[in-house]
């Protein structure tokens, strides 16, 4: 039988401090503790209290999932729970997600979890999924893989090298900031896909997604919405990414297509992890 061995809590604290590029003095001042005490905590000469550990984690902007790991390493119970998205306690969250997705219509919007797996989407996402093979949509469908895979959106992205460089940079940064090995593995997988990279500075205010469609090349800017006050792991790790028109031509095409359209035919997620829309429910 394999026994799970966690690194000492002091070692984990040091890793998070270094990941945030802070000196012991910087963190000690920010957390209002002595640099000597922080040094003792990192070397194991002192044991942190639960309150101290949570204070340091807050200053270090440690994600909630990893805050639980810090607490467990120090011998404390986790502070943050994880509820299934379809549980009664999460009704307010699911209502909020539905409201946001509906509000973005006729512009495409998706809800993803920390691993970039698709949780749900609005009807306008069907524009992105035209011609995508079923095997890329099987749950858990990963939206970054959908974007960059040669059988996914990649052939239809007019500025693929630029968009690919943007996504890989974003994913690499998230993998570093969270220390999530799953994100690091996804980054390696996607970086190995063809498509090239263009790291030149974009001409506009942000990197656009320029997508070839039957209505011509449409240009989008993406925005991200999160639950800023979430204390539940499921809610904290959800984000809504919306693709808004970057020009009036794109806006006009999307508004013209607002007439009743079935939701994208995406397989449902596993129970308790959210579900994508059922196209029959909106008819």
Walk me through this protein's architecture.
- The protein has 2 domains: 9-73, lambda repressor-like DNA-binding domains (434 Repressor (Amino-terminal Domain), Orthogonal Bundle); 88-256, Beta-Lactamase.
- It is of the alpha+beta class.
- It has helices at residues 9-19, 24-31, 35-43, 50-59, 64-73, 91-104, 126-129, 134-137, 143-148, 160-178, 181-191, 233-236, 248-256, and strands spanning 109-112, 118-121, 209-213, 216-226, 239-245.
- Helix 1 (9-19) crosses helix 3, helix 2 crosses helix 3 and helix 10 packs antiparallel against helix 11 (181-191).
- It starts with 8 loop residues before the first helix and ends in a 27-residue tail after the last helix.
- The protein is elongated and about 65 Å long.
- The protein has 13 helices and 5 strands.
- A 5-stranded antiparallel β-sheet has the order 2-1-5-4-3.
Write the SSE topology:
Elements: H1 9-19, H2 24-31, H3 35-43, H4 50-59, H5 64-73, H6 91-104, E1 109-112, E2 118-121, H7 126-129, H8 134-137, H9 143-148, H10 160-178, H11 181-191, E3 209-213, E4 216-226, H12 233-236, E5 239-245, H13 248-256
Antiparallel strand pairs: 1-2, 1-5, 3-4, 4-5
Q: Radius of gyration from the CA trace?
A: 21 Å
The share of residues in helices is 40-55%
Let me know the largest β-sheet: 5 strands, antiparallel
* Amount of beta strand: 5-15%
For the record, the CATH class of the largest domain is Alpha Beta
Which class do the helix and strand fractions yield? Answer: alpha+beta
In round numbers, the mean pLDDT is 89
User: How many DSSP H or I helices?
Assistant: 13
Order of helices and strands: HHHHHHEEHHHHHEEHEH
Protein name: Transcriptional regulator, contains XRE-family HTH domain
InterPro entries: Cro/C1-type_HTH, Lambda_DNA-bd_dom_sf, MLTR_LBD
GO molecular function, one term: DNA binding
């Amino acid at each position: 039988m394999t026994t799970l061995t966690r690194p000492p809590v002091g070692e984990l604290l040091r890793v998070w401090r270094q990941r945030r590029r802070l000196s012991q003095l910087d963190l000690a001042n920010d957390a209002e503790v002595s640099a000597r005490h922080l040094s003792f905590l990192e070397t194991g000469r002192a044991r942190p209290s639960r309150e101290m550990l949570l204070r340091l984690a807050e200053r270090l902007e440690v994600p909630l999932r990893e805050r639980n790991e810090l607490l467990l390493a120090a011998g404390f119970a986790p502070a943050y729970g994880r509820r299934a998205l379809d549980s009664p306690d999460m009704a307010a969250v699911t209502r909020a997600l539905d409201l946001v997705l509906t509000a973005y219509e006729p512009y495409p919007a998706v809800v993803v979890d920390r691993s970039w797996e698709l949780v749900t989407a609005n009807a306008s996402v069907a524009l992105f999924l035209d011609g995508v093979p079923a095997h890329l949509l099987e749950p858990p469908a990963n939206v970054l893989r959908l974007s960059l895979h040669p059988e996914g959106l990649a052939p239809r992205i007019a500025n693929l090298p630029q968009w690919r460089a943007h996504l890989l940079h974003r994913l690499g940064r998230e993998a570093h900031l969270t220390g999530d090995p799953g994100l690091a593995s996804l980054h390696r997988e996607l970086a190995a896909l063809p498509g090239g990279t263009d790291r030149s500075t974009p001409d506009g205010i942000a990197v656009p997604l320029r997508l070839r469609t039957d209505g011509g090349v449409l240009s989008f800017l993406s925005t991200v919405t999160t639950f800023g006050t979430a204390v539940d792991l499921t809610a904290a790790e959800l984000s809504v990414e919306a693709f808004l028109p970057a020009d009036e031509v794109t806006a006009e095409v999307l508004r013209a297509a607002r007439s009743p359209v079935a939701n994208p035919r995406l397989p449902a997620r596993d129970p308790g992890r959210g579900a994508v829309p059922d196209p029959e429910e909106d008819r």
